[in-house]
Amino acid sequence: MPSNSPYCPIPSRISLNAHLYRAETSDDLRHLINDVARAAKYIQFAIRTTEAGLAGTKNQFGEDQVKLDVLSDEIIRQHLCESQLVASFSSEEMEDVIELDPKAPYSVVYDPLDGSSLVDANFAIGSIFGFYEGKEIIGRRPREQVAALYVLYGPRTLLVYSVGKGVHEFILNDVGEFILLRENLGVADKAKTFSPGNIGAVTDTAPYRNMLNLWLDEKMKLRYSGAMVADIHHVISKGQGIFTNVGGAKYPEGKLRLVFECGPFAYLMEQAGGAASDGKNSILDVAIRDTDQRTPIIIGSKEEVKRVCDILSGKTR
Ligand code: AHM
Ligand code: MG
Questions:
Q1: What is the CA radius of gyration of the chain?
Q2: CA distance 42 to 50
Q3: Over the stretch 53-107, which tens digit does the pLDDT of each residue have?
Q4: Atom of ligand 1 nearest to the CA of 229
Q5: Residues with CB under 6 A from ligand 1
Q6: Which CATH number does 16-182 carry?
Q7: Domain 193-313 carries which CATH code?
């Protein structure tokens, strides 16, 4: 970070590191976020250059892992280990919480490559991270996160982060640095676009069908890519919208995981002025019992989140 010395030129761009410094983020957290951002650069390079395909292995949920899932997880683990700042971590690709150094200041939860089944279709995909102080993850609530971020690998590579002081967006430039694009992204109370996940649930969940019919009747615009990270970025980027993944017979709790996916996004969405609910409570207040815990999620513009929760609970039609 340049000092006030007249010998330090005024920068023509603000780097992620400079932005974290200005936000008075602790040095440890700033270094850890920089390390995670560096891992993301290697992942985006791997996405561009690695042939898509199955790795021949399954993750803790019995899902086929694609090569890039495994590689992204390895890249992140390497950077977390090298940082010397991680007490424990938990990845969507691994079964347990892994303890690294109980005296280190932070724990990290992450989905290394959300939407990886879309790699062959060349859709946007991403990495999602949540940061907690201390070594415990089980028994915590996502509200205890001290930071969250995601990296979106699309036509551009974007990084969106919050350390509890607003939500800020960076773009990866040609020399490999994340530089500030937009500061203090906000999400309006009313939604104009909808992004309905686990849509198969309408066959046995009448209120979800009612909700969908309302969105169609009101001529709201459909924006659904199949990667949560891209679909929620759409809401944050456009400053409005609603994303849902609610339960039905096949996935009673919906398809998405509290720890790696819903928790970090709930933190970012509340920081942007939106809301995230499991249908009853804020996602940020749901206790983490297990790393494979799933939760319904209704996230985005505040008024729409409330309306969806009311309709799904049968309070209104
Ligand atoms: P993944 O982490 O294995 O990629 O799975 C999670 C993804 C989310 O990104 C997305 O919202 C959801 O699965 C899509 O599910 P569906 O294809 O049923 O709409
Ligand atoms: Mg995922």
A1: 19
A2: 11
A3: 666 677 777 777 678 999 999 999 999 999 999 999 999 988 889 999 999 999 9
A4: 9
A5: 63, 111, 114-117, 197-198, 226-228, 245, 255
A6: 3.30.540.10
A7: 3.40.190.80
